[in-house]
Structure prediction request, 325 residues.
Amino acid sequence: MHAPATMTRAWPMLAGLGGGLVLTALAAGAGGAPQVALAGLGVAALGWGVLSLRASRPLAPRAVLATSVAALLTAGTAVASGALADVPGLPLAAAGVFLAVVALSVARAARGRRADHRGPDASARRSPATRTATGSEARRSLVGLAIGAVLVSALATPALAATEAGRSAVPHGEHGTRSGDAPSDRAHHH
Amino acid sequence: MKNSPNRIAATVFGAVYVLVGLLGFAVTGGVDFIATEGGLLLGVFAVNPLHNIAHLAIGAALLIAGLSNVAAAKTVNTIIGAAYLLLGVVGFFIAGTPANILALNTPDHFLHLASAIVLLGVGLGAERTARVATA
Prediction:
């Protein structure tokens, strides 16, 4: 496998984890049906990320593609109609980016799977997880994983902080402060 | 060890967390253990004695596993990465408590998230046939 492909192999799964975190954080600040939908989608994204990491390939690409596109279209429609006026923009945009990355990657995987059915050697070419990794490939994949984690964290951290959960979070240095301190006041410290 | 992503990740992150834990005590020396006020490590990471203990414990577990063998490193990486993310998600729903470890735009929360993703990713995805990997 080429070095860039080795390094970026896990990035769609990391995007799934990032998207799942942002969606569950949005769910924590929502109520009613949106909370259920956001939490369900978030947990599904986290689960897909974990299981796909374990399998070393994007699982259920067609179902994930359909779900991601449907979620993006629904969110776009809701934003356009003003239904999400109370929802902070940054986490919504970050979740959209993560879902788009997942959708693009599973679309590629679905195309690859179709190509596999056409050629007898294709499945062997596209099963990197079953091969024994060489030392250099292992190091490249670790470096790629670290870069991907930094990119996901760089987008997810400010997005999580902009959610309702972030606004009421307690800064580390203030654990145990008086309960009378209003969370909203503390939120402006960072 | 150099051919094992899990051992490399566990050793590097373990060393960093142990170092952060030890250095943390230098900036929180006069602070109560339950830490109503913390200190700033390297001028950016907010720490208090309770966090120093947590960083030391996590770092020690990672370091020992990383220096031991592939299977131990893989197991500890996965458990710590999953625990961080799980606690982070649960923390969103009990946001006014210290359990909310991921939802502030601060360097320590960034470090928690990035290290959790790397540890979970390498623990789940690398060396699925850990017994044949070069230890």
